[in-house]
Design goal:
Shape: globular
Largest sheet: 2 strands, antiparallel
Distance between the termini: 66 Å
Helix content: 40-55%
Radius of gyration: 20 Å
Oligomer: single chain
Order of helices and strands: HHEEHEE
Number of helices: 3
Length: 124
């Protein structure tokens, strides 16, 4: 009886591990659509006061680290950061599943956000 319980416990543990390590299936189109949604939200507020803007890393290079940085207005912060986090996870999974290769160059953060023509611009 004890051996059966140990066997069942091992099966349950291994099935949980399989469920958590299964690769996330994502298509290139899903990545593009997700990125476009983020960009639209970023551009949904006119940039008239740079102090109301922040920036965050976005995406995942195949070698690790962010693919880029993007500006967002504080009024859309929670929704925006949720979308960026999901996109970054999807891109990382896509890169791993498809053996994507990147340039591996470090993408440093910008110094600040400035407003030009009512649009946020990252200053490096």
């Amino acid at each position: 009886m004890k051996r059966i319980l140990i066997f069942l416990f091992a099966v349950v543990l291994s099935s949980c591990e399989l469920a958590t390590t299964e690769p996330l299936l994502v298509s290139y189109e899903e990545l593009i659509n997700s990125q476009e949604k983020i960009i639209r939200l970023s551009q949904s507020v006119a940039c008239t006061n740079a102090s109301e803007w922040k920036f965050t890393p976005m995406g995942s290079k195949a070698c690790g680290g962010p693919a880029r940085y993007i500006a967002y207005h504080r009024s859309v912060e929670r929704e925006f950061l949720d979308l960026v986090e999901r996109f970054t996870s999807l891109q990382k999974a896509y890169n791993e599943k498809n053996n994507v290769i990147s340039d591996c160059l470090f993408v440093g953060p910008p110094r600040e956000v400035i407003c030009e023509g009512n649009k946020p611009v990252l200053a490096f």
